[in-house]
Amino acid sequence: MIKGNFIDNLPKVYGIYTGGFLAFIIIMSIAEQMGMTAKTIGICFVAFTVAIYAIIGYLSRTAQADAYYVAGRQVPTVFNGMATAADWMSGASFVAMAGGIYFKGYGYMALLVGWTGGYVLVASLLAPYLRKFGCYTVPDFIGTRYGGNLTRFLAVVVLTVASFTYVTAQINATGTIASVALDIPFQYAVYVGLVSILLCSMLGGMRGVTWTQVAQYIVLIIAYLLPVFWISNKMGAGFFPHFMLADEVSRIAELEAQFGFVKNSAENLKEVPKGLAGITKAHSAVNATPWAFISLALAMMMGTASLPHVMMRYFTTPSVKAARKSVGWSLFFIFLLYSSAPMLATLSKLSLIDPSLPTGIIGKSISEVQSIDWYQNWNQANLMFVSDFNGNGTLELNEFFMGGKAVVLATPEIAGLPYVISGLVAAGGMAAAMSTADGLILAIANAISHDVYYKIIDPKAETAKRLVVARVLLVVIGFAGATIAAMEIQGILGSVIWAFDFAMSGLFFPLVLGVWWKRANREGAIAGMALGLISGAGYLIWVRNGGSGFLGITQLTFGIFGSAVSLVAMVVVSLMTSAPSAATQRMVDEVRVPSGKSILGKQH
Amino acid sequence: MSKQEQHWEKSRGLLFMTLAIWFVFSIGIFLFGAEMNEVTGPFGYPLTYWFTCQGSLGIFVILIFWFANRQEKIDEEFGFSERGDD
Fold it and tell me: Hey, is the C-beta of B1 within 8 angstroms of any chain A C-beta?
């Protein structure tokens, strides 16, 4: 069926795959009609998709360093865009983003702007130059540009701190979905999730991860868009929600004005299960100060440009030109999901609070709401809660509470979509969490195996030995992440946003100035990375322990402080010490020109 | 000035232009978020709300492709573009 080179056949291969997945959805919906239980459908969806990823991972096995670290540098632009989008969009983006918008409105939208705007920085400041450099990992660039083992080692430290903060949240998300879909306890489900993650990356390294991430993107985008379009059509809100929900948005504003945001007493709130929230912020009004919005967006943008698991995706393109275009495609594929999240939040909110809709529950009697099937299901899952605080017997806006995840997970059921959609959403969430976890674990393991083991400890190691070390590290880091995830101390390690702040504190300026400022030298880079990370982390600890902070920098935006310290330290120390050698300056000149050989050879 | 220096000067010019546009749509307009939201934007959404949902995001996508094309032209002009595929 498929002849010739795999790369030339990619559109055909993934075309058949997409068709096959759609056929699978149709078969499942027929099975549902014939009486297959909800639980079986959930198991089928998760098991089927994970099995496919595992097969792709096995077929991509390799024994070559070039293929293991950078997928042989032959991933075409559009496909690398899809892989980056899957790498980027985590379980949190998939499951929690719409919920964040639903509850926090404008203040949360800063994340959407930040997580997309960052790609402009990636495309213009970094990706093409790092691709020209020809490095395998981000610390590889830092170590070669500035010279010395200490710079390389510090870059590995920053990378590990940022990526590890991020990865436990992702393994946690895979575990949550696996435990719900397969109906097993969370402590075991975490390891089931981990094994699925490792199946994709262990044998093929970056090559395996690339081709599974493309497959995962296709699953997750279908799983996100199909329900949004379906619900919008079913509610009669418009067949293309993105362009047609203005009336719904203004209707929500109207209802908010009518109900008002009544503040609950602390005593009443004690009754509400942990993690659930009520609607307390306006949906489309501006409810944050300009600085609160801008500082969060800025932190996310600079963090995006410093996260190694994203940057290393652009090392896999065939050329510098392709790396630039590929950033555009990545953002396009991300845009498809991000622009749909606010629409889902709008549809979800309106269907719940509008008394004139059959699904609306505000204004109904409490006992009536408590007898609705889907309310009982989600109440049992600890994602929904109502209570008659004022004792008038009807449900008010301030008496209805929901978990953030419920917006994505429960809305299809509330809108009356068949269960097959819920199974599809579970598979999508699993794909999103797995693909990000894979990219992160690989980034950490590659940095340690390539930069610490091969470049610092044993530069004479054979390729076979290097790849064994890389794979062992992959498993060790995966298990460490899963073990911490199984302890469920999410509050401490689950914050995805911190990963961005850590990365920007330590890496943003050393990376950018490495390309754009020839005078930047080794001493400056060491000061920038070390002081940036230390001051950022110090600020976080201070604020978490009751410190008041300054300039409105919160625990979510501490990277602004860390990166400012990093910039000052790097410039001052660079200028106080001698300029980089002539050879280094020539190297920077070379990096700035797309044509010609890369700085680091094909096998290094 | 050598060919390489000229190339870099032009590339830097393009960078500043790209970052200026980026700044406007990621930071600049949100200084006036509250005021702008009074205005009705595309498709009838409140303007600031529209920018956060679609506007800024879409502009970033277009901006990156525009940047990539311009940079390619600059590379070609100085004979620094790579041969072959993309």
Answer: no
